[in-house]
Design brief:
about 475 residues, alpha/beta, Rossmann fold, seven-stranded mixed sheet, six-stranded parallel sheet, 19 helices, about 45% helix
Amino acid sequence: MPSNLRNALSTKLPTRIFVDASHTCASGKNSGIERVVRSILSECSQWCEQDGLPAPTLVTHFKKNFYSIDADLQKWFSHVAQLESNLRSKLPFLYLRTANRLCKWVGSSKVRKWLLPEAGHLGAFKLPHNFYDSTLRRTLPWSSKPVAPGKDDLFLLPDAYWTRRGVWQAAAEARTAGATTATLIYDLIPLTHPQYVGEKRMIGFQKYLHQAIENSDLIVAISKTVQDDVKEYIRLHRAQFTSVPNDIRHFTLGAELNLVEGKVRPEVQELFASSASTEGPKNPYLMVATFDPRKNHHYLLDAFDLLWKTRDDVRLCLIGRVGSLCEDVIHRVRNHPALNKQLFAFYDMKDAELQHCYRNCRGVVFPSIVEGFGLPIVESLWFGKRTFASNTPIHREVGKGDCVYFDLESPLSLAQEIENWELVADASDGKLPIRRPLSWEDSSRQLMGHCLSAFHEERQEQDDSLRKAG
């Protein structure tokens, strides 16, 4: 935290800081939200004590209480996460062989999804997986000591609570005890673009958003665009809320990936060669995104299909877990004539491999239709890569003047921009971005600064109320 902010709040700092990561601690996924939560936790744990703040305590929730996640509990949660990260790698060979034969014989994509789920999915194993997870959480009341919230506590809620909405019961109890709660909001896409999630998820997300609004002292959005969306939503639906937070802010997400050591598969090393030969194939362009309709993979493939008509030296690699409503694009990728020639796909990349790809790719393309931020844009800029982004307001906010923006109405627009870059990419006039995006340390400090400011104001209001009552 900057020293001026620390000095300004020195009389009203929290005694304890709790961070709820109930979803992420048991998630085997490596999507944007998990990367955000893990980065915030990692950075705050490193600098908070140095700046005179209490080190954040990682917690989970069950019914009305928060519980600390100690090393033993984290180990049990990691077992849950490992299954989800890549279930197939944990299944015995005999099962895999039998299931493969059955799926080929039946010829049903639904049966394959059920018996041989992609990385990040559980298929038929979802029921036992969820039973294990819920049983683990139900043991918390007697295996762990609940947190007793008080007026000197700050609770940060940065996780994916549209999947675990039970957190709000614990958050309400914490606020009743006088604690301050700050909630991260990533986007309002299920409400603004329900066609990408379906009615059931839209309704569930709306319930989550209402609970977040009613149970938060502070809402922090991940961009100015999302901050404005939240404010407008509250204005339009004010009559539906019993209370709303007076404080709605935004912060900027960090760009660098957690620099971790890890194994990089030989096929990934070969595809993204660290020292690409001028005579060998060029390293691929990269798209990092969950396979999801709003990420716009069809547009990207249309653009590269145009490029491949005139040149076969341009390659593309798609990285992301398989999401929902994407059977058509997965089918297109797996049956594309350029697959494993000019087109490549990985569905289970780890951080170390993702870093390798970012570091050695020819450029990054992000054709998403709608985002709350667009994390791959700043990750690409962090690695100094030519970054091609769809021309949307949020991408302009995040990428500023450092990206090449293309028209979503025409795949030819992107194809031409890639072609233009190919003409100069290997020459001295091939300009790359020079702006260094925000680091995760600076991002976490920015976020915590907002939280501490809100805590300070809440304590002042409580003290004022007590003085008036006295």
